[in-house]
């Protein structure tokens, strides 16, 4: 066995250029498989991470038809007072001009309640969040995102500072942590030195205060509801739909309820399907590489006909000849696989450097294992026919072959 393996290695290494060109198909196939699937996983994880940062255990409701009876804040609190609901929060949005000292700029202001931050899993960096008393008293308080506090005040610990919104003074009650800011519009900040920088500017004020600040926010058109835990999501959704159907005269078209956990599941399914599709495309390259191995092995069998005849004449068994040529195909295939893994590792490192924090691209261990197994199977499957052809040659016919 050891001698057969040594002869197979010597035969493979005897013609290095031809061996490398044969390996090239496997190298490209393995590298394409690992790189494409890893990028698809990285992109899917990046999107899923952004979605999960906003929370994954809540229901999103949008009201499209008020039936000439708009939902008000006081009624909303009564409707959402159910044990199956952990928190409920209305959301409205407007754009205002924020100003602090010599720094001013357009920013997105969201009207909501204190429950919104727990629903969206937002963490506090400094100060406090919105309270029920803020809604009851129409308080002029605001919770800023981390970047917004830095842009307006030069530091994140801005609790207690004053910020003007369309000429009305609001006190900064708190600042969210850097990772908790929800996606907002990229706005331009203009300061006293006329320099500009693109940042995300956003803040959260009591919904009742937003109704007075913005004329277009007079009723609740959108709100979020979270369940006690993930296992009660379906129960919470059924209860919420029952409440809304009763409120809007059993008109299912008057509102829509979106389950965030279902969005996450759909996203995971899309990611899985994308990985399978890209992996299948890359696997075709491996099959092409396997055909190349079979082609070269058939040529090798023909070129080494006399060698086969001599080995059989001095007593080599048919199984030894078959094993030698099969090992040659397997060596070429696995060497190409290892080279492909190395190339994909280098490529993924480069892609990771280019993408930075936008997308985390790492080599998928399961795909690497699959590539190794698949490459081994290709070496055996596409090498078995040439090996059998070599093993079945008759010694007398092989010795007569003049090539």
Q: Can you tell me about this structure?
A:
The protein is 55% helix and 19% strand. The longest helix is centred in the C-terminal third of the chain and has 44 residues, at 260-303. It has 2 domains: 2-50 and 267-400, no CATH class; 66-250, no CATH class. Helix 1 packs across helix 11 (318-355), helix 2 crosses helix 11 (318-355) and helix 11 (318-355) packs antiparallel against helix 12 (365-391). It is elongated, with a radius of gyration of 33 Å. A hairpin with a 5-residue loop joins strand 9 (186-190) and strand 10 (196-200). The chain has a 6-stranded mixed barrel. A 4-stranded antiparallel β-sheet has the order 2-12-1-13. The protein contains 13 helices and 13 strands. The protein has 403 residues and is an alpha+beta fold. The model is unreliable at 183-197 (pLDDT under 50).
Instruction: State the share of residues found in helices, binned by percent.
Output: 55-70%
Which segments are poorly predicted (pLDDT under 50) over 5 or more consecutive residues?
183-197
Strand content: 15-25%
Distance between the termini: 29 Å
Strand order of the largest sheet: 3-4-11-6-8-7
Number of strands: 13
Counting helices, strands and paired strands, the structural category is alpha+beta
| SS element count, helices | 13
Order of helices and strands: HHEHEEEHEHEHEEEEEHEHEHHHHH
Q: Biggest β-sheet: count, sense, barrel? A: 6 strands, mixed, barrel
Using only C-alpha atoms, the radius of gyration works out to: 33 Å
Overall geometry comes to elongated
- In round numbers, the mean pLDDT is 81
Number of domains: 2
